[in-house]
Request: fold
Amino acid sequence: MPKPKDRTTPKETLGNAGELHQRSETALTDNHGHPLSDNQNSLKAGARGPTLLEDFFLREKIFHFDHERIPERIVHARGSAAHGEFVCTKAIPQYTKASIFQKKGASCPVFVRFSTVAGGAGSVDTPRDVRGFATKFYTPTGNWDLVGNNIPVFFIQDALKFPDLVHSVKMEADRGYPQAASAHDTFWDFIGLMPESMHMIMWAMSDRTIPRTFRNIEGFGVHTFRFVNASGEGRFVKFHWRPVLGLESTVWDEAVKIAGADPDFHRRDLYEAIERGDFPQWDLGIQVFDEAWASKQPYDVLDATKLIPEEEIPLEIVGRLTLNRNPSNFFAETEQSAFLPSNVIPGIDFSNDPLLQGRLFSYLDTQKSRLGTTNFHQIPINAPKCPFHNFQRDGMMQTMVPSGRANYEPNSLAEAGEEGGPRASREVGFTTFAENGERNQPEEKLRIRPELFSDHYSQARLFYRSQTSNEQAHMASALVFELSKVTLEHVRVRVVSRLRNIDEDLASRVAKGLALPLPAKAEAAKEPIDMKPSDALSIQKKAKATMKGRKVGLLFSEGSDRATIDELKAAIEKAGGAVFLVAPKVGALPMKGGQPLKADGQLAGSPSVVFDAVASVLAPAEAQRLTKDGAAVQWFMDAYAHCKTIAHCDGTKVLLEKAHVEKDEGVVHHSELVKVGTKRHWAREPKVRDLA
Ligand code: HDE
Reply:
């Protein structure tokens, strides 16, 4: 039998007809390649006549436009993403045979998408919410998707409860609000009835859910995964991302104001940081442990509502992630990116965490529904960068053109000189870890949870007691705020009755803040135990007093001293910070000495909430004039109330007085700004806010 010819159409070949019809690369065509002569006027029967159906270009253009949207993600709909690189900084072949961890210095491209969870694609960036941190590693042995969050635990233990959780937090079913907010009846009703959510609730009510930027969040794989080495030995592993810039959050009042000032605050921050070459970085940390260790812990490592304190198993840093390129097209890349927790590579395997197990089939299903076809993996952002071939064929939107007859296996076509197609390999192929250890032996088929899953409070208590007193006050206040939005009295009472199992002081602070008599303590399925507090769980204990990656708003006006501004700007930039010039008018303003200066933003549109610290260089007369400008007074008032560094000149003092800014270690002369840094001055907070 003759060998079938390669019938693949050679790309970009026009035959010699092409030579007769040369046209420029920029010629506008329709989607079928027809050159067009007019993109302004549709085809009409006469200048004032009806539009003709035969206008194929009008029809195609509107048809395509009408179908531009695809279903948004049911959760994590609002996201921002970037390309980058992952570099292995420590080889760990003793733990895993995963291709990217075999050699120090080995690298692979990555795509990371950050997201909020509850809001729709068009919602604001700064609600109180968990943040998604999904990373696609394009490794030489296929794509590995680490689809995690900025919190190491989750609300629920079993995938079966996920639709209930999401329904409860989303807009209420009858009224269609609130958007992107957990502060409403149905969420707290569900939470109050699900004591397993209490640990996650402690994190959700902490400052972790109002992060300053995506660049300042940690990331967690959440579930326990498994590493498998070349000898087939398995160990459990937890994955952590640690931001090189350090953790940082906003205060609630600030987050709310940012939502109004710049709904795209996090998206813009990520984009602009990458554009100015200030590439965000994270270290990849792992916690590796075995079944024997796991079986001795007072919690179950398969329970996604539990974490492993770093003091028990310290992180080993094994890699560095750098985001260095913005997407070229938001839809093609950010929107069409499809993450699958089932995307693991040889050397990484799953555990029996029942939440993870549910995710393994959920995401594949989701992609078919969002992207419309089983061939979603061929979209460039989702396609592996290593070769991939198998015998799967056809389907909607097939863009690959496999050649030959081998679309089944086994086949012996190679013996006749034809292409036989790829084959599975025991040596390099993915093998599922053969479980051993009695704890995980398949047993009877039961709808049941392991015994230790019923400890709902010990780690919630661990988290609360690991915070600074200021952070504890933030948590109590967040609970008061959220529960005050709840209109069902019995829901409020139930939640507070659960808090009593976490910490009596927390419960009474919240009850007091709600003007609620302290309810009876809820019955706990298992009495909580006291665990050793962990500093790694606190943001404030880990905050870095750095200028690096931070943005300072510098206020000036007509007659400001140009040399002082230049000097201050240079000092901030030298320390790794960025400066954003703010003035009452955006056009070039005359300066005292030197050239006129143009602002990056107008004062009313650049409130201090969008900066990490503020500075001012103002002529006394201008400062005096600005005391009558609400935007200027609010600028300092907010910076003060949000515990930020205020670095001012002598001329600014009248404005500071008007804004009721009192001198403290964070209110300094501008020459001291770099020394003081952009760290928040929490000691100031009791002066400006009545916390629960
Ligand atoms: Fe997701 N989740 N999830 N999730 N999740 C989705 O998948 C789901 C869970 C997470 O930037 C969806 O592609 C189920 C835990 C992130 O594109 C959907 C369960 C964690 C992202 C889905 C969970 C996550 C998603 C929506 C319970 C933290 C955004 C669109 C079994 C470890 C990824 C999509 C991106 C997205 C289902 C639980 C994180 C609906 C059924 C736990 C970061 O398929």
